Amino acid sequence: MLFDPLQQQLALQNRVVMAPLTRSRADADHNPNALMAEYYGQRASAGLIISEGTSPSPNGLGYARIPGLFTAEHVTKWRLSTDAVHRGGAKFFVQLMHSGRVAALENLPQGARVVGATAVALEGEIYTDSAGMQPHAQPHALGAGEIPALIAEFVHSAQLAIEAGFDGIELHAANGYLLEQFLNANINTRSDAYGGGASQRNRIVLEIARACVAAIGADKVGIRLSPYGVFNGTGEFEGIAEQYLELARELSEIGLVYLHLVDHSSMGAPPVPAEFKAQLRSAFNGLFIASGGFNAAKCASGVKFGAGRFSCYGPCFY
Q1: How would residue 21 be classed by pLDDT, with cut points 50, 70 and 90?
Q2: Long-range contact list for 21-25, CB < 8 A, 24+ apart?
Q3: Are the C-beta atoms of residues 102 and 122 closer than 8 Å to each other?
Q4: pLDDT over 80 (residue 310)
């Protein structure tokens, strides 16, 4: 069943999904290139490929040489990769990843700034091409009045993604990047409309999801979540299950095409409770991508369990 076609919200040649894997191979202007097109084209026997984290904004380019998708040149250069993937038969979603406070000023283009849910810097260091390892920069806490501009950046990038030939976008609300910096109560200590409670912490993700769906269609918007993850200063907090189940139900109402759950326990992170996974799957009516520690047997078992509504990625599409 793992290699059977999927003919549901997405039409895929099989149920295997390639993980989003940051390569830092873009040029100095954060443009994709021929090497990246070759890399993705070589993997186009998958059903769905999710691109490496790609920033929708100059402010989101926290890592050295990650690609962007907010200029006409980015669109032109991404077409090399989208064409290569489609020649191989796979569908291709771009992962829109705003790094937020996971950044060094040395990695940002001139005029950009490091932003976050709060003004608290992430502990530790990050690599820069110009100065080697550097402490994470002090972020500017986005005010409520600045949120509409951030949403507009995601919408603009989503529209450019379709222009560049992508089949859709994945909102990266996991792994401690900007959207999870709002979701996670260990980071988000705000007391305004975007913090202070579960619904308030979920708000920015839901607003971005709704805006992107309005711009390009629900069948072209997925999301990645990592509850119980510990990367980039996140971690479990009181009420985490209830918050994420509420988020999943609202994302389901918006009509997102898939929910992509990260489980890094195979890499040493705390496991995502099995009961919570089942509850999350029940709360979301779209396709469900499970990831982390899969092999062929586990993927096949998941596909059977999901009665075709899942995807698997070794990730697997259930």
Answers
A1: very high
A2: 21/52, 22/52, 22/53, 22/63, 22/66, 23/52, 24/63, 24/64, 24/65, 24/66, 25/65
A3: yes
A4: no
pLDDT digits (tens, 9 = 90+) for 119-162: 999 999 999 999 999 999 999 999 999 999 999 999 999 999 99
Amino acid at 164: A
* Domains of the chain in sequence order: 6-317 (3.20.20.70)
Scored b (16 or more CB within 10 A) or e, 118-130 reads beebbeeebebee
Beta strands in 157-201 (DSSP E): 168-173
Rg, C-alpha atoms of the chain: 18
Q: What integer pLDDT is reported at residue 297 of this predicted model?
A: 66
Distance between CA atoms of residues 17 and 292, nearest Å: 12
- The catalytic residues are 177
Measured from the Cβ of residue 301, the count of other Cβ atoms closer than 10 Å reads: 16
Report how far residue 137's alpha carbon sits from residue 288's, in angstroms, rounded to the nearest whole number.
Answer: 35
